[in-house]
From TrEMBL:
The keyword Nucleus applies. Belongs to the PRP38 family. It is found in: Nucleus. One of its GO terms (biological process) is mRNA splicing, via spliceosome. InterPro entries: PRP38 (IPR005037). Required for pre-mRNA splicing. It comes from Zygosaccharomyces bailii (strain CLIB 213 / ATCC 58445 / CBS 680 / BCRC 21525 / NBRC 1098 / NCYC 1416 / NRRL Y-2227). Transmembrane segments: none annotated. This is Pre-mRNA-splicing factor 38.
């Protein structure tokens, strides 16, 4: 079907900064995500049994979390890959509160590793909340969060930050990268995995070091 006759892909009814939250993801990427098998099987409202962060968090923990002893069927552990972008799109559409995000960022002592979940949430925050003014209380909390993970050196598998997993014009490479590299890219570049990051005023971290104890 010609592009001009295609129907606009699903747009979330939730709004932020006077527009649908979905619009931070480019139209072409949204179409590909919504047609991806992973999204259609795991992330539609029927599969989730709801359209809330409580429902989505079960899939995020199942597919991005890991125990100290990895299980063989856990195959989604790649930042920026198709499954990752599907989860990111659903996170954008649901638009969880900051308190709900904090729950997923909490570390425990059971041997559960949440580094890919952290990567998902950091990418979501930078993509969705780029427009916040530096004096906004939420922006200040984000700065403290990014400062904390800038000192995190855990290794993760990731599609190279300057590559788009949906492209057919180049071979997509997956490398071992570190959490601090992800934070640095999110703060300094204009896009990641083909998704625009937007001009951000709160991304400078120098002044936030005094806030880390909050």
């Amino acid at each position: 079907m010609p592009q001009e006759f295609q129907i606009e892909s699903y747009l979330s009814s939730k709004q932020l900064n006077h527009q649908s939250v979905s619009l931070v993801i480019p139209r072409i990427a949204r179409d590909k995500i919504h047609n991806a098998m992973y999204y259609r099987v795991n992330l539609n409202t029927v599969s989730l049994r709801g359209d809330t962060i409580e429902c989505l968090s079960k899939v995020i923990v199942r597919d991005l979390g890991s125990l100290a002893e990895p299980v063989s069927f856990q195959q989604v552990h790649v930042l920026g890959g198709i499954e990752f972008q599907c989860l990111l799109m659903k996170l954008v559409e649901i638009r969880p509160t900051w308190d709900q995000l904090e729950v997923m960022l909490q570390e425990d002592n059971t041997g559960f590793n949440n580094k890919y979940i952290v990567g998902l949430i950091l990418a979501y925050i930078r993509i969705q909340y780029y427009f916040l003014q530096v004096e906004d209380p939420l922006a200040q909390r984000f700065r403290v969060l990014f400062k904390h993970y800038y000192n995190d050196y855990r290794k993760m598998k990731s599609v190279l930050f300057d590559q788009d997993c949906w492209t057919k014009s180049q071979t997509v490479s997956v490398n071992i990268l570190h959490m601090d590299e992800l934070v640095e890219w999110l703060l300094e570049r204009e896009e990641i995995w083909g998704i625009p990051l937007g001009k951000c005023q709160w991304k400078e971290l120098e002044e936030s070091s005094s806030d880390e104890s909050d």
